[in-house]
Amino acid sequence: MRIVAALGGNALLKRGEAQTQAALAANVVQAATVLAELVTAGHSLIVTHGNGPQVGLLALQAAAGPKGSAQPLDSLGAESEGWIGYLLEQELANALPPGMEIATLLTRIEVDASDPAFAAPIKPIGPVYDETTARRMAAERHWAVAPDGAYWRRVVPSPAPVRLLNAASIARLVAANTLVICAGGGGIPVARDAAGKWRGVEAVIDKDAASALLAVQMQADLFLMLTDVDAVYLDYGTASQRPLRQASPDELAAHAFATGSMGPKAAAACRFAKATSRPAAIGSLRDAVGIVAGTNGTRIG
Prior knowledge:
The protein is an alpha/beta fold. It has helices spanning 9-12, 21-40, 52-63, 73-95, 131-141, 167-175, 207-217, 249-253, 262-276, 288-293, and strands at 2-7, 44-49, 102-105, 108-111, 123-129, 144-148, 151-156, 161-164, 179-182, 188-192, 198-200, 222-227, 232-234, 242-244, 246-247, 280-284, 298-300. The strands form 4 sheets. An 8-stranded mixed β-sheet has the order 3-9-2-1-12-16-17-15, with helices on both faces. A 4-stranded mixed β-sheet has the order 8-4-10-11. A 3-stranded antiparallel β-sheet has the order 5-7-6. A hairpin with a 2-residue loop joins strand 6 (144-148) and strand 7 (151-156). The model has no long low-confidence stretch (mean pLDDT 92).
């Protein structure tokens, strides 16, 4: 079975966890071990991943450098895509039998320069803060900030992905039995300027939206979103929360989920399932094998 497996940012860096290279590396080892089990079971994988914490950290580091050294979000997205892709590729190579071909591909994704998302930042990036600190940093750095669960984070524009510009290259690698890591962090957002030239744009594409588009274009049999919760929950965070184990796209779309966490995953699952009549699934990274088998997580379709 061909599976597009999207690793959520919270699967690579748990909420509240120190944003260190050691923590990221340890989580990548765990992720690679689980993904290797799927490959060993005979599945063909295309892997994507989040980058919210990492791209935000890179932005902070760039801003702290010499005057003029700050980098735009598209460049930081490319940097984080290479960073995390390298770690995943290396640990997958350690976890899989020798000779398995693995390739990390920086992925440019077209967005619409007139997308209304540019006027309404909602995508969380970077470290978490308490509200007081977040509001102070917003005033100092001219950020937009918003709640993210029990914390606050910087938010940036998140336009919808229109087209994967590297789709043909990805397809050729997959056809050659290569495990491809691509569209990391939602890919690198680009748009044509008035002269028709491709230019990077100041935004971060939602990883799940980009992964759903990838899964449709690559004709995946299953679109798998792996995060830090074991299923989609109704009334999450309340005394009446309960897991949703199976739903049609219309049933899932009838429920409201948090914009910065489960909302994008639910929307991406519905988009893939409706476009392909094939299932999407959401659940915990540690349960990936069971989710694929249909015994864990939430299945949509």
